[in-house]
Description:
Layout: H1 2-7, H2 13-36, H3 39-47
Amino acid sequence: MYQNVLKGIDGIGIYGVISICIFFGFFTGMLVWTFLQKKNYLNQMSALPLDGGEKNPNEKIQR
């Protein structure tokens, strides 16, 4: 039933192309962002769940 409805809509194929482009662009952007992060920043972020909740006002996260 749904196949007949979708076949009747003109230009429906472009939505598939747009969704693939968005998907590819997002994950390519995340890959680039990941490789551009500094090692010190990533080490600080990875240690956050293990720090026990103590807050040190003198320590700042460096990007």
